[in-house]
Design goal:
The structure is a single chain. With 65 residues, the protein is mainly α. The chain has one domain. Helix content is 43%, strand content 9%. It has a two-stranded antiparallel sheet with strand order 1-2. It starts with 9 loop residues before the first helix and ends in a 9-residue tail after the last helix.
């Protein structure tokens, strides 16, 4: 069995990304941010989903993708 890290709150992810929880909420609304989980009314993130989102959004040029 692989060890899983605890689910992260939006504040922890926002701090990690250098943004705000409000910006993450906007990303969720627009469907642009990392995948997230709803636990009741609370939003939580898997670190692996955040890392995958970062990988998917890594660019080598400023040109159109």
């Amino acid at each position: 069995m692989t060890e899983q890290r605890p689910l992260a709150e939006p504040k922890a992810i926002a701090d990690f990304l250098g943004t705000t929880p409000q910006q993450l909420a906007q990303y969720r609304y627009l469907g642009k941010g990392p995948r997230y989980i709803k636990v009741g009314k609370r939003v939580r993130y898997r670190w692996s989903d955040v890392e995958a989102w970062l990988t998917d959004n890594t660019r080598t040029t400023t040109g159109a993708a």
